[in-house]
Each structure stands twice: as C-alpha cells, then as structure tokens.
Amino acid sequence: MSKQVALAINGGPRVVQKPLPDFKNASGRSLGDEELQELRDVLDSGALAYICGTKVGEFERAFASAYGAKFAVSASSGTAALHIALLYLNPEPGDEVIMSPITDMGAAIPVMAQLAIPVFVDVRPEDQNIDPQKIEAAISSRTKAIMVTHIYGNPADMDAIMAIARKHNLFVIEDCAQAHLTRYKGQLVGTLGHLGCFSFQQSKHMTTGDGGMVISNEDSRFGRELRLCMDKAWPRSKGGRDHLFLAPNYHMTELQAAVGLAQLRKLPRLVEARRRAGDRLSQLLSSCKGVRAIEVDTSHTSTYFFYSFTVDLDALSVKGAEFVSALNAEGVSCFLGYPGKIPLYKYPVIKNAQTFGSSGLPFTLAAPGRNWNYDDNLCPNAERLCQQTVCLWWNEKLSDEHVDEISAAIHKVADAFAD
Ligand SMILES: *Cc1c(COP(=O)(O)O)cnc(C)c1O
Predict the structure, then answer these.
(1) Residue nearest to atom 11 of ligand 1 (CA)
(2) In whole angstroms, what is the distance from residue 166 CA to residue 376 CA?
(3) pLDDT tens track of the chain, all 419 residues?
(4) Given the CA of residue 210, which atom of ligand 1 is nearest to it?
(5) Helix (H, G, I), strand (E, B) or coil at 73
(6) Residue 201 alpha carbon, nearest atom of ligand 1
(7) How far apart are alpha carbons 179 and 238 in whole angstroms?
(8) Are the beta carbons of 62 and 258 closer than 8 angstroms?
(9) Atom of ligand 1 at shortest distance to CA of 200?
(10) pTM reported for the whole predicted model
C-alpha cells in the first residue's frame, strides 16, 4: 500500500456509519398498505390458489399491458419462467442453447432440464453482456435458441443478436430477471426477442418473495401453448382433465400475485430510483483511478440490478478479494464476481455433469466434435471479469446521500491501493 489511508479494515474509521438500506428487509424494499390491501382481498376471498382466484389473472393482464405484450404467463420463480420458455420451444435432446456464462444458474438449469446443452459464448468486457460478434462461431445445426441475459440491468446488443437469430432461424429468449423496465433504444427489453422472462425474487426490482413471468407475442403456431407449460400441460380452459406433454406445476399463488399487482404499479418509481442512484454513482466514480463502471450506451437505460464495477488490477496493487474486504469494512456490502468468482460453466452441475444419475446427460448427447472443456479458459473475458468485478446490492431506497457515501468509500479504498 503506497498511501497512508486509514482503511477501516486496518482499524481506521468507517466511511459509512449508519447501515445502508438493504434489499433483504424493509429498509430497502417498498412493501406497505398497497400490498396489504391486495392481500386482504385474497384472504377475504378464501381462494389462495391460481386455479380458484382472480389475482393471478389480473396480474398477468396488467404485466402484459405494461409491456404491450399479447401473452403473459405467471410462474413460481424466474427459473420457472425460463423453464416455461424452454418447454414452449420443446428442443430435441442434444439441441443447443447459446448463452452467456455471466448469469444466474437459473438460466442454465431449464436448458439442462430439457436435455438441451448450454453453449457458452464470451462477454464484452465493457458491459459483461454476451458478445454478438462471438455468437455466430458457436452456432451449429443443433442450435435452437439464443438466451440473452441483460446483465446488471443493462441491455445486451439486441439489434445485432436479432439479426443473427433471423439469419440462422433461431429463437431468442430474453432473460430480464435483472432488467425490469430496462430500455434498449427506447424499447423495453423482454419485447425484442420471442420470449421475455422475469423474476420477482426478493432482490429484484419488484418482488413477490419468489415469482416470475413470461411474456410473448408468439402464439402456439411457433411452439407449445405457453400456459400449458406452467400447468402440467393441462388444458383446463377446455374443461375436464387431460395432460398433453411433460410439464411441471409452476403456479404462482394468489398471495404472490396480490403483492405483484401492487408492486407493478410502483415499478416505474422503483426503477427510476435505482437508475438515478446508479447513474449518480457512475458519475462520481468517473474520477476514481483504477475503478471502471459498467458502460451504459447513451441510447439505452440501465435499471441497475447490482451496481457492478471492475477493478483494474494492473493500476491498483490489490486483488479483487482484498478490495471487496476493504470495501465491506467501510460499511458497503458487496461481493466479488458474478455469478461468483467463477463463470457458470465452472460450477459442478455443469463442469462435472451433476445432472441425471450418473448418465452425464445432457452433455453426452453432444454431436461429435462438440465437446467443451470447461476447465480450459473457455470464455477468457468472463473468467477474468469474475476475478475483478465488484457487485454492490442495489435497491430503490438509496438516496443521493447514500450514494455519495458509497462513492466516498470506493474512492478511499481505491486511493489506498493506488500505485
Ligand atoms: C434471479 C435470476 C434468475 C432466476 O430467478 P429466480 O427467481 O431466482 O429463480 C435467472 N436469471 C437471472 C439473470 C437472474 O438474475
């Protein structure tokens, strides 16, 4: 350490004295009378299940309308929403789905659950979204879809991705679990591909505890009927009992939908607060040596799921993990790397095919010559970024003063480690 800065980790005073608002409790979430009123309706009705009540239907219609989508189907989680999208596409075993290794495992699980193979394409260092220039080289005759995560609330390059998809006749699933009301050239992400999937888990822009939604303008001419994919393939609207294909029960409950309806009405405000705080922090960090904010193209709006930035390990005499420990000690809760210190494919479920018994499925279905070595720096940018990205939990209760404190803490830590 070249400068005499009394870091909190070395016994100096903390920059952030009072705890910052936290998504894990009321300090960082906006749950109140509006949600309570909706919940009251459900309890009074005595109908807690989707098949008996009205709130899930109401929530689906309100969500579709907010996005200008023809169809919206609710789900019990974001992972379930993505699985519904995969069930809709109904890939053949061994088909491939192109995706980024910087995303939640909830994006890869549904692919493998449908016996399709996730094919990982590296990210762009400047924003950690999938690199469209690397997609075409990964396409094979077995490629079924491209799954696009809009990472950290910042949109991927959808024009380039959709052009590739059209050229190769591929479906595009947008994983918007971190990107509620994110706009790409003015358009809402989730409406640009064929299917848009959302999560309402506790940490997301709006929450129902757990929950999810799929939106689409595509009808069953292109895939299965979307609603059947979340409901045991049971066409209830036709009366009687029938089960048309293999599909789980991914129902959202009326209680979740009640909270969701109230949260959805607040969503523009919640997202605007996240965006304002995120943009402010990027502005304040522009002068911070050794620290680089995620690039947000001026034609897009990021809605900041995490606030993530990279630490320039050449400019600072520090490892990512030390930077994170020092920042945590200053009172800013953060962690190193997303989805962790390793990209998705290095977790045992994929790397060691911990899937269906000892079968090694779906990876054993790979066509000859399509074998991936998950140990061998498969996506170099992603592997490097996992070691140098600092992620701050973000929420709608962060005021300008909070952001100024967070900035001061980051500046202090970066200064302390500057060469
Ligand atoms: C949260 C998340 C998911 C999974 O959502 P759950 O509701 O936690 O199942 C999927 N993809 C991304 C990018 C996420 O952030």
Answers:
(1) 104
(2) 31
(3) 445 689 999 999 999 999 999 999 999 999 999 999 999 999 999 999 999 999 999 999 999 999 999 999 999 999 999 999 999 999 999 999 999 999 999 999 999 999 999 999 999 999 999 999 999 999 999 999 999 999 999 999 999 999 999 999 999 999 999 999 999 999 999 999 999 999 999 999 999 999 999 999 998 888 999 999 999 999 999 999 999 999 999 999 999 999 999 999 999 999 999 999 999 999 999 999 999 999 999 999 999 999 999 999 888 999 999 999 999 999 999 999 999 999 999 999 999 999 999 999 999 999 998 989 998 899 999 999 999 999 999 999 999 999 999 999 999 999 999 97
(4) 7
(5) strand
(6) 7
(7) 35
(8) no
(9) 7
(10) 0.97
Distances (CA, A) of 312 to 78, 389, 417: 33, 9, 11
- Check pocket membership of 212 for ligand 1, CB cut-off 6 A: yes
Residue 200 CA to ligand 1 centre (angstroms): 8
Distance 250 CA to ligand 1 centre (A): 15
Residue 285's CB is within 10 A of a number of other CB atoms, namely 18
Burial level of 134, CB count in 10 A (0-12/13-18/19+)?
middle
Is residue 110 lining ligand 1, measured as CB closer than 6 Å?
no
**pLDDT at 222 (0 to 100):** 85
**Does any ligand 1 atom lie closer than 6 A to the CB of residue 130?**
no
Residue 330's pLDDT is what?
A: 98
User: Do residues 108 and 363 make contact, with C-beta atoms less than 8 angstroms apart?
Assistant: no
Q: Identify whether the C-beta of residue 358 lies closer than 8 Å to the C-beta of residue 86.
A: no
Q: How far is CA 73 from CA 80, 196, 257, in A?
A: 11, 10, 12
Peptide bond into 19 cis (omega under 30): no
Listed in order, strand segments (DSSP E) in 192-351 are 195-199, 212-216, 291-293, 300-301, 306-311, 334-336
Verify whether ligand 1 is closer than 6 Å to residue 278 (CB atom).
Answer: no
Angle at CA of residue 401, ends 398 and 406, nearest 5°: 75
* 3-state SS assignment for residue 183: strand
Cβ of 77 closer than 6 Å to ligand 1, yes or no, is yes
Rounded CA separation 306/274 (Å): 10
DSSP state of 19: P
Structure tokens at 358: 């000892």
Q: How far is the CA of 46 from the centre of ligand 1 (A)?
A: 30
Kindly give the distance from the C-alpha atom of residue 152 to the centroid of ligand 1, in angstroms, as a whole number. Answer: 11
Tell me if 199 CB under 6 Å of ligand 1.
yes
